[in-house]
User: Fold Granulocyte colony-stimulating factor receptor from Neophocaena asiaeorientalis asiaeorientalis.
Amino acid sequence: MAGLGAWNLARAALIILLLPRSLEQCGHISLSAPIVRLGDPITASCTISQNCSHLDSESHIVWKLEAELQPGERQQYLPNGTLQSTITLPHLNRSRALLSCCLHWGNSLQILDQAELQAGYPPATPHNLSCLMNLTTNSLTCQWEPGPNTHLSTNFTLKSFKSRGNCQSREDSIPDCVPEDGQSHCSIPRKHLQLYQNMGIWVQAKNALGTSVSPKLCLVPMDVVKLEPPTLWALGPSPEVAPPQPGCLRLRWETWKPSLHIDQKCELRHQPLLGEASWDLVGALPSRTLQYELCGLLPSTAYALQMRCTRWRLPGHWSNWSPSLELTTTQRAPTVRMDTWWRQRQLDPRTVDVQLFWQPVPLEEDSGQIQGYLVSLRPSDKAGADPMLCNTTELNCTFQLPSEAREVILEAYNTAGTSHPTPVVFLESGGPPLGRLHTVARDPHSLWVGWEPPSPQPRGYVIEWGLGPPSPSGSPKTWRMEHNGSIAGTLLQENIRPFQLYEITVTPLYQDTKGPSQHIYAYSQEMAPSHGPELHLRHIGKTWAQLEWVPEAPELGRSPLTHYTIFWTNAQDRSFSTVLNASSHSFVLRGLEPSSLYHVHLMAASQVWATNSTSLTLMTLALAGRIPSGQVFQTQPTAAWVPGCLPSQRRIPSSCPAFGTPACHPSPRSRCWRRKRRSQDPGSPMTAQGPVASPAWSRPMCSRGTQEYLVCSPSPSLAPVTRSFTCRCWAAPQAHGLGTTSAATPLSPSWGASPPAPSPMRTSGSRPAPWGPQSP
Assistant:
């Protein structure tokens, strides 16, 4: 039994290995058409031959297109006993696909047969057929556009024939020209051509779905000839020929040797090597001359030149452009007008130092390149003196002249020559001046300068400008000449920078003289000062207060001060103001209420800016009197003079802001009561607690820190005193602990008491700060 079992297993394995091969030989696929139009239907049949009849009668054929199962098959047994399955694919949308006929065998599909399906389009009509006769290859080359892709193998053939007439009848056939795969051009060799006889030419396209032909082309090969470009050369100098004029180039060319017997016409084009200029075309040039002089170019400029040719008076195609020939035009003498200006300084009775300036103004578009300038004496002045004063590439020159010299000659030069001489006459100042010179800053980089034209009208103006004081007197200046004497101003835009003071000079020019120069200073853009003047209290009474300040010194980049405005506000928030002229440095506020607080600040202003001074807080006296001059108490940023403390008391700063409440701290001989009310700020100084009696004049003014209401009375041993004493309000420390400290001012001896040494105060986050008098 063991041997029989082994035999059965081997037999089963043999059947599995052999049967699939036998199945592949059973089936066969037939197609309705091997190639169809893309999108058309196609029908396929798969037939199982009779030698496979031993298969199960319920075997089922399955179709696959590539890897996809296809439904809709029809299966039947034919009369001869063979099994056939038919399927129709309604739309074949693939240009190439593999169709498989399969049979279920066990748990897998076994392929019986396969067929490749193809789909595409018939060839489109070739178009744009054109031909060129190439004398270099000695062949007629034709090219065309094949049209859209057919997705099928398509063959193109260039067909032609010779004809005596207009290509309606054939005389001799010409062998077909088949291009290489993927190419759409083909060349007919010279041996099949008659250069001066008509030819009929067309293109045929053919694939499995059809054939198409292009329209027929009838031509004579030499009528479509394309010549090779000529070779350009520079025409060298010759003793018999004068050198070229400035702005001209001379060149010659050689035609291609195989076309020497052909009459040709040529075109020349040129383009500057530098810049982005386009090509300029020169008309038809006869090839028989073989040389040409090109003029009208810019002097001293490099050019690229190219030429192309075609048949003269006969049909043909233009050749390609020749390789570029690079030539440079010669220079021409400068053609410029010189605007001149000068400054003179008498060195001694016989010698004058002259500083001459000039600006060349081109008179033509191609006025010639300038390499330098010459300044010389007038011919009649050259006897016994060096005629050449300057030879420079700059736009200015300094030289010395005899006092009687009134004229020099200025010329521009280059290798081609010199410009027309410009006489420079040193005019005397004898004309009328212009009036009302003024300036306006248009923007940070320009200044408008205007004036009233004098009478009679000048022939022009010279405008100079440069940095004003404190710049050195010899600093460079910019200048311009205006030739229109009727204008009343001009815009200066060269060498103007913001926040700079400029000195501007305008001089009128007349026919034989000049007017006196007018000067003005102006800022191109002004800036406000970093701080205003510091305001001080000089004296104070019941209904008045005298203020003073030190004007700020002029600063570079700022316009002059025009006025001051003083603002003061009382405790009821009523505001007052007055305007003072720029020369003021003190003012008396009158009409104030006795024993009242006032907040004062000063605003300084010019035409373009305004800035505020430090703030000052003061309190008028309750009784008649005044505070003597000298050192006064002032805080940063505020100060206050407040009654309420006896002279014998120490004056220690409290923690009040600008409109703060005074704090009076008693000396050992006095009795004081004070109440402390702490806010959320922990940086306020600590004071003792005790009974409080608030005076009528005290108001809660602190917004943070310790607020104090104080009333002080002398000890019984002291004589009665009034409440018109001087204390101060101390600015509250900042939240981050950097409190501001200052010093109380010692009282004048007229108060009848000398205060003891002040006690230091401690602010949160700072060390004990001594305090003493602060000078105004």
Q: What stands out?
A: The first strand starts at residue 27 and ends at 31. The chain has one helix and 50 strands. Residues 1-22, 626-776 have pLDDT under 50 and may be disordered. The helical segments are 2-24.
